[in-house]
Every structure is written in structure tokens, then in C-alpha cells.
Amino acid sequence: MQDNPAALPPDVVPRIPAVTSVKARVVAHAHLLRLDHSIKQIFIVPGILLGVALSGERVDGAQAVRIAVGLLAAILISSSNYVLNEILDAPFDRLHPTKKNRPAASGKVHVGWGYIQWVATMLAGVALAATISRGFLLASIGLWVMGCIYNIPPIRSKDIPYVDVLSESVNNPIRFLLGWYMVTAIIPPLSLLLSYWMLGAYFMALKRFSEYRQIDDILIAASYRRSFRYYTQESLLNSVAFYASSAMLFFGAFIMRYRMELILAFPLVAWLMAIYFGLSFRHDSAVQNPEKLYRQPRLMIVLTLCILAFTTLLFIDIPSLRDYFPKSHP
């Protein structure tokens, strides 16, 4: 699992600068963990809320500690995946207008120590996960395994068109399961997991579209990300429409069977998705770097409204909704 610049056109592989400063190495290896990406663990929160709401479990002090430990375990396992991703992607990141400055791409990390860091953070995360529950442990291992499938040859699913989006966005339902199994042991609704997966695919496909659009050079785009050899802007947007439709289909199926009150939150969800779609057309869009999305005030306001609406509607019953949306009978 070494960098393979030979796989790229020789005229576009930059020279890697030599770095001798120990301090610079330590800082670079710390950056490999991408702790600023911990904001993505917000996808665990719906699993916690829905697990509590649908199972009837109560969150007491001991449960709160489990949740805190579980979040730390998820951060460690995600960081392990980020370390591997950055090491293996370094030759390709050097072709990206902004990712070329990442620690591994700019030659600031020791690759051997990077692999040790990858395994060590995984082991620490799994050790913590084992203290939560069996379901949480299995979901944690699944999150790490998907990072391997996504990054490591010969599978390296990130190089396969459409599979790249689907295999990375499957981390969404896995994160949901992490939250779910922090608070309950029952099996979650399949429709909800599928909706969460397709919503993640929607976000990821827009990230691909934004990257492809910004590079604006087919040859460089194909060298940077192999799946871009097969994509076009049109095909990426077509896939975005498919993922959005699928997400809302399964979300509707979940609502109709399990929690009708959530139908009132649908306009906010649609609004959030529309804002995100618009952001993908901007140059150097935050869509390419989700950890920077907090800088988008309108998106953050609508996201906050979504969270408040979901939290409220999960725990407040509105029986009159059944009169407007009665179940059909044969």
C-alpha cells in the first residue's frame, strides 16, 4: 500500500519536498486525523434520537456516559479511515487545486508511521466500542471495513463510478446504527436506513459534481479521481436526482408506518436539500469540504430548524394527523 505516482502522467506528478523538522512531522501527523471533520458525527445524532423515541428507552446518567464514549469511539475509527485515505490518495491529491496542500500530499508525513497511526487509532476506537454494546461494536467494525474497501486496492471502490458514491455514503446508515445502538438493542426500520443511505449519496454525488466542475479539465480530473473518467456533469446531476428521489421515497415509507408527525418536517428537509444543491455550483464550494459547511449561515439556520422540528415531532403526538392521512384498506 505505497504511493504510486507512476500511475499518473509523469508531467503532472510534482516533486515531494523534503521535510526534516520533527515539529513539522508531529503537526502533520496530527492533521492526518482530520479532527475538524468530527462535525460529520452529527449523522449519529438522529440514530440516538430515533432510537430513544421508537424504543421508549430513557436517557439517564449512565446512558449519557455511553453516548459520550460512543462518540469518541466513532471519532477515532473515522480518523483511522482518514489517515489511510490521505496516505493512499497523496499522489492524486497533488493534482487537486486545494488538496495538494494536505500533509501527505505535500510530503510532510512519514508513510510508515502513518500506517502505524492508522492501525493504532482503529484499535483504540474498537476497544472503546466494545464497552458500549454488541450492535455498536459491529457497526464500528463495519465503518472501519468500509474505509478499507473504499481506499485499498484491488477493490478501491472510490475508483468505480457510482459505486464510489454508494460505498462512501453507506457510512451514513452505519453512523445512524452507531447512534441507535448506543441507546437500544432493537433492530431499526429498514426504510429509515435506506433513506439515510440515499440522502448520504445525494450529498456525496453533489460533492463529486462540485469537484468535477471546479477542476474543469477532463484529463486532470481523470488523473485526480479515476471515477471521473466515466462521469460527466450531466451524469452526476442525473444521479443526484435519483438519490434525492430514493431518499424521499424511503423517508415517506418510514413516516407512514412509524411516525406520521414527521411529515410536518418534510418542507424543511426539502429546503435544506435545495440549499445544498445550490451550494454545489459555487467555486471552491464548501460542499467539497463538509467540515466548512458551518460557514454557510443560511444552511446552518435551516439545518437547525430541521433538528428542532425532528426532535419536537418525535416526542409530541398529533393524533389529528391520522384524520388527514388515514391508512388505506383493501
Can you offer a commentary on this structure?
This protein is mostly helical and 330 residues long. It folds into 2 domains: 1-188, UbiA prenyltransferase (Tetracycline Repressor, domain 2, Orthogonal Bundle); 189-330. Helices cover 63% and strands 0% of the residues. It has 13 helices and no strands. The protein has helices spanning 22-32, 45-55, 61-93, 111-129, 134-151, 163-169, 171-183, 190-215, 218-224, 233-258, 266-279, 297-315, 321-324. Helix 4 (111-129) runs antiparallel to helix 5 and helix 8 (190-215) packs antiparallel against helix 10 (233-258). It is globular, with a radius of gyration of 21 Å. The N and C termini lie far apart (58 Å).
Low-pLDDT ranges: 1-16
Percent in helix: 55-70%
| Average pLDDT figure | 88
What's the shape? globular
Give Rg in angstroms: 21 Å
- The CATH architecture name of the largest domain reads Orthogonal Bundle
Helix-strand blueprint:
Layout (H helix, E strand, L loop, with lengths): L21 H11 L12 H11 L5 H33 L17 H19 L4 H18 L11 H7 L1 H13 L6 H26 L2 H7 L8 H26 L7 H14 L17 H19 L5 H4 L6
Features:
63% helix; 330 residues; globular; Tetracycline Repressor, domain 2; 2 domains; disordered N terminus; mainly alpha
In short, what is this structure?
With 330 residues, this protein is mainly alpha-helical. Helix content is 63%, strand content 0%. The chain has 2 domains: 188 residues, UbiA prenyltransferase (Tetracycline Repressor, domain 2, Orthogonal Bundle); 142 residues.
